[in-house]
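Notebook, p. 212. Picked up where the previous page left off. The plan for this session was modest: take the two constructs that came back from the sequencing core last week, fold each one, and keep the raw output in the notebook itself so nobody has to go hunting through shared drives later. Recording the first one now, exactly as returned: residue sequence, then the structure token string.
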Amino acid sequence: MSSLEVDSVYFYPQENAKDHKTDKFELIYDEECPMPIFRRGLKFNMAVRFVERGFDPQTDKIRLIFNLGPNPHPVKGTKAFVTIDTTGGSNLEQNQKSWACNMVNNQDDTVLIQVYAPPSAPVGLWYLQVETSVKDSGDEASIFEQDLLCYILFNPWNTQDLVYMPEERLLDEYVLNDVGKIWVGPIGTTKGREWVFGQFDAAVLPAIMYMLEKSELPYASHGDAIKVTRMISKMVNSNDDDGILVGRWDGQYDDGTAPAAWTGSAPILQQYLENQSPVNYGQCWVFSGVATTICRALGIPSRVVSNLVSAHDSNGTLSVDKYYNAQNEELKFDPNNENSNSDSIWNYHVWNDVYMARPDLPAGYGGWQAIDATPQETSSGFYQCGPAPLEAIKRGQVGFNFDVPFMIASVNADLMRWKEDPQCDIGFTRIYCNKYHVGKHIFTKKPFIFDHNGDRDREEITTQYKPKEGTEAERLSLLNAVRGTEAAKRFYEMPSSALEDITFDLVDLDKINIGEDFSVVVKVTNKSDNVRSIKCTLSAVSVYYTGVKANDIKKSQGEFKMQPHSEEQLKMTVKGDEYLEKLVEYSNIKMSAIATVVETRQTWADEDDFQVAKPNINIQVPQETVQFVPTKITLELKNPLKKVLTGCKFHISGPSLIRNQILTHADIGPDEKVTVTTEVVPKLGGDEQKIVATFSSKELSDITGSSNVKVVRVQ
């Protein structure tokens, strides 16, 4: 008797998808080649059909061979030989450590099989071979291997998986939700920017597989969430290894897409897959959005994290240091930084938290871990960051992997200002230390809520990163980190300047609409019994959100005397016409003030960033739309500037509604209101869908809008 000849293999991609919570992936519905997508730690059904005769358990042997990567090997876990158990003795639900397979049904020429992939299996695109032979015959086995591919993903619903999340209902948000928000902008004008993660788009998993291949992470490590998320933080940026996105912050985007124009991750990953080269351009929140998409597609719980007033500590001192010469002019370089970089403060910065166990660390450091895909500083020679346990960041545990000190500085560094002083050992005296400037608020999206009109869906998670600001616990946490960092010790032990009997307060600005006037105001109080002479400089400059200066807007200098126990208010007004032409993307402005008391040499300096507010896109949709029925939607926008907008584009996206559409528009005149229309055809019914739009032009960008769309299912 010859061995069985396999005619075909069927994975039941749609039927299995329900149990595996992969039924939202577009790939399983492909008409020509539906792709099975499974989660490890679960059983799935498949059928094998034979030519001429059926399977006889007494004489025939069937073995499934699963392979991952170009050189699969059983010892590495990238090759699995699974013999079908026909006795019914294999309990797949209890088998937690190895592959298993048993026969469910054997009828005519087809055998129905259940397969179990262990919760430690590497994730990726597996290739299946079906081997048939006759028992005890000694004849050569026959192997069937025709396009038998399946995806195996992490399984956060399985208690044995490293990414298991005990509060399972949260996985509806952190794995299955494909539209969310990213909070951007400085304090006072921070807004939730809608982002289509689109992790179920047909291009996403193939793009991730290409990224995994390019990363050169050993296939045996593809099941290790720690190594995979660290690799994601490296590969989302293009700095080292032709990763997904090229970062750019100078406003010059003519040879690509402006970061503010993207509506979501899917078009970025699709372009990366098609061109097999990095995509132009991204910034921190775009890097974070793409990282979220990749993590959620793979089954790793992930959330976007926005840190308002974020420190970039370039030399490991756990402080952000700014230097001034004897004339109170800020230096453009850091005289105490050997790598020639300077510390900086971004008015906001965005990264990710991923959820997993940390068996490599002591108990208690599992849970949320920070990763950062924005290329800022190298870690182990590459632009990568994390995963850093939030618990270690909060406790100041700088000795734990990975990149905990950098993340501590990001959320809790002290802002120190230094003035040139030849009598000091390092050539500078510390004139001011602000312990409460960095990490003022840390936001993420609240689970299960989406508010396209406001911020009801915003959740503050600051206390997950550090103890409450101003408490003894917060100071002890930072000092614990300082004690473990030699470079930080030297800076934190430096004495401050002596007598300080004048107080200064730079007044924060409320919301300013584009074109409106604003004022830089400093309140000064003389607490001494003596007359004090004060030299003061007020200034306003336009800045990129990374804190890099773009253009000077206005500056005012003066000297005045203050009577004992008196109060004064210094004010500089900036007209709309004085700043409009000097704004750069996102319209951020930095107000700065520096003052010196002549008699005591007390020096004070402070700054505040704010964003000029711009209009939103108004998206109008019918109260109800019907599944599969074309529906018209309307986008409205008014030009808020007294100038013509050129190179106008609307980007529109919504999972299951419309796929990454770009509408060009003619020039828009000053104060002109424009309306554009397009058509959507809802693919899914019964749920509230979301649509997101952006507008960009050469003169005005970072305009967004979103709307909910109620879709009636066709019965």
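Okay, moving on. Second construct, recorded in the same format:
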Amino acid sequence: MTATKRTAGRSANTRKTSAKVVENLFFSRDESWMRFNQRVLEEAQDETNPLLERVKFLAITASNLDEFVEIRVAGFLQRIEDGYNLAQPPDEGGLTPQERLDGLMERIHQFVAAQYQCWNDQLLPAMQAEKIRVLRWSQLSDTARKQALSFYDNEVDPLLTPVTIDPSHPFPRVLNKALCIGLLLRHKRRGLKAPTALGVVTVPRALPRLVPLPGAGGNYDFILLHELVESQVERMFRGYEVLSRSAFRVTRNSNLYMQEEESRSVLESVRAELHNRRKGDAVRMEIESSATEEIIERLRINFELDPEQVFRTDGPVNLSRLMNLYSEVKRPLLKYPAFVAKEFKLSTKSIDIFDELRKHDVMLHHPFDSYKTVEEFIEAGAQDPNVISMKQTLYRTSKDSPIFKALTEAGQSKEVTVVVELMARFDEDSNIRWARELEDAGVGVFHGIFGLKTHCKLSLLIRRDPDGVVRRYAHLGTGNYNPVTARFYTDISLLTSKPELTGEVQKVFNYLTAETESDSYKPLLVAPLTLADGLVSLIEREAAHAKAGRPACIIAKMNGLLDRRTVEALYAASKAGVEIDLIIRGMCSLRPGVKGLSERIRVRSIVGRFLEHSRIFSFENGGKEEVFCGSADWMPRNLMERCEVVFPITQPELHKRLREEILAAYLADNTKARLLQPDGDYVRAPKTGTPFSSQNYLMRVAEGADDKLPDAAKIEKTAAH
């Protein structure tokens, strides 16, 4: 089946519209993000998913929304406060930032209502049926109350500091996203005519938000920490009558506003800005829906919030902490079946990984292929006396990472250079700590180019091989050097000793440590130097092939597509006759299926057990297919504000695996895939034929099953018509 015929049937499932009736050819970034989080919420609502996985998906939506509010909503508020409130051009929506914010806040309120409806109407009853209960204080048995009070007296009460707000006791500093209890108080000795006072208790983050209780008959019983604290507030505020009480949580602006200063190192600048961020302006308050209007108003005024920035929650004020249920409840049948990644094995004639890489490249598809191979590659560099030097980028890693330990050990005896990205959002504290530990171990630590995040995933080992030749060995990846997330993020790793790749990787490191630019990095595409133009050139090349009647097809998988120039190039390619399939997990500003503009473009999003994180770009190229992988999404920040690397996969069997196993599986998915419509809605892929899940298929293949892809998934050369 040709790709033209293959895609014709799929296009029929996309509602088409005309370019003439579409006012805006680009979806709003923020609206697109909200639709992505809605797809995650749908997984929590989906009864075909295991119950505790559904709870986990709900917690993920809350964590996602936290970051969105801290960064995007805060950014709108900052711009408006700074006086930047001009309307956008008509082709960008024609709205002012205030109008965009108003619409966005309305959408967030609707989303929050859907989250709590899922929790109260779906998940809580389903958990109760499985003997997993989250109880109120009034529902506890005597035995459970006794244990809860023991935990409170020994673990909680010593950490609490009750504050009554008055001229001598100003409102306490409330940290970003900290759980707090607000109380309306009246002094008993002063009688009913005494004015009411506001009390506040901040609950330390070190305490678990779900307190386990003794459960009879195999029950897993819990009480929310704020319920336990609220039940004991009379003990903290003796002499006061507690008129009402409610848990609340404040989200603050978490943007870093860096300015280059000659007198400071980047590390010190980031550290100073982190301190400022903790004191950022409040941008949202979540508070229990049972709270009295007086408490809400007093808190709202104190935090200088508008009414629409207050969110009344019909349940826990921090749904992201429900993630603890997943780890606390030991019920394997309520979770996804265990999966063990495929271990890489050396060829029988290879004595070590270096010997193997001199013969051929190794490509890994995580988490289906074990990440241990990447760890062992870097550990081999640290332990092998023939390895002379090591170079490494670190964007996010994990606590007790084998990679971090290997680099620290190597610093004792080798020349080791590490480029640590300090401004990896919300990992700044840990990255500062790791940078200092590496420096203490003798590692040369750099922070890339000021103003550019170092987001590329590169490792380079220089080794004097047994034949006396000094060779380079490299790892290039699409994901972070984080063994924890590697277990549930899908990513591509390439291990190679090809000089045409490893030599260019060294040039990238020179750029990061000395800002020395090369005339060319081919065959690599490097942002912000060559990637943006290179991608557009590849898309335009497909358009030229289509116009000439040669095979022309683009299949691109990424996390987000927002770059205006790239989208316009895709529109032009579609009009030229190029068939385009985009697999985009999150934000997408491109509007597919518009007659006369994008009718040959299809966009799908896959949200499932694993977080789709790999970036794979395939170009038919007139029958001489080229496939690339890399660290960059097609977004302005990746193309212009970060150092990114996109690399080709040229070895025939690896090229074939990317096209005919991995990409083909994602295009065949009719279980977890949603198709983007011209109006911005996402609809489930039609379940024609046998249900097919790409992630389940890839797991079975990794486990050795001889599963076949559906016929419709086969990718073949396409001649444009």
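Notes on construct two before I forget. The chain is about 35% helix and 20% strand.
Flagging for discussion at group meeting.
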